[in-house]
């Protein structure tokens, strides 16, 4: 009688844990900084200005995309890139005098708003808002796919960060 060993299930592809921990934590920190900045609370002062967050997240996205390209893990760059665009959107939206003036009931003329023509005006806000919304859905899809293929324990932090990103995007686009 011969005995054959049967493995209970094929080994899943091994994903390095650094992107699964560092990138979601960075995303959650950027989300917390944006919430603190948008809330305008006296005690909620962001440690880094938005320009530093955006630049840092763009650099992280570029490094992750370049490093992950050979290993087929460049998709991890979507999350920091989306967060960087979200920070830029929050900064441009905060400077858009027409939008903030209309929301507060104050009439704003083109001459009183120095940022009305900044980088093309409201069309840029629309393009970045659509890009952020689409990329947020991509991030959530990647996190759910990761949870389906590698288990919820391995994907817990990416899923939490993607859900937080979706909540922040919804808050930014609706409010």
Q: Main β-sheet: number of strands, strand sense, barrel status?
A: none
The overall pLDDT, averaged over residues, is 73
List the uncertain runs: 96-119
Annotation, overall tally of beta strands: 0
Q: What Rg do the Cα atoms give?
A: 20 Å
Structural class: mainly alpha
Describe the structure.
With 175 residues, the protein is mainly α. Helices cover 69% and strands 0% of the residues. Helix 1 runs antiparallel to helix 2, helix 1 packs parallel to helix 3 and helix 2 packs antiparallel against helix 3. Residues 96-119 have low confidence and may be disordered.
Topology:
Blueprint: H1 17-39, H2 50-69, H3 78-95, H4 97-104, H5 122-150, H6 152-174
Helix pairs in contact: 1-2, 1-3, 1-6, 2-3, 3-5, 3-6, 5-6
């Amino acid at each position: 009688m011969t005995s054959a060993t049967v493995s209970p299930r094929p080994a899943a592809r091994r994903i390095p844990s650094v992107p699964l921990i560092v990138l979601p934590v960075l995303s959650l920190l950027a989300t917390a900084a944006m919430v603190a900045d948008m809330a305008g609370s006296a005690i909620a002062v962001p440690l880094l200005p938005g320009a530093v967050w955006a630049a840092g997240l763009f650099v992280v996205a570029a490094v992750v995309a370049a490093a992950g390209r050979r290993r087929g893990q460049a998709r991890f760059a979507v999350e920091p890139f989306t967060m960087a665009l979200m920070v830029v959107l929050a900064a441009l939206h905060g400077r858009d005098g027409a939008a903030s003036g209309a929301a507060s009931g104050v009439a704003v003329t083109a001459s009183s708003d120095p940022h009305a023509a900044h980088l093309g005006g409201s069309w840029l806000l629309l393009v970045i808002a659509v890009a952020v919304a689409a990329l947020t859905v991509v991030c959530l899809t990647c996190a759910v796919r990761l949870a389906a293929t590698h288990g919820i324990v391995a994907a817990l932090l990416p899923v939490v960060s993607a859900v937080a990103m979706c909540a922040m995007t919804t808050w930014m686009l609706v409010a």
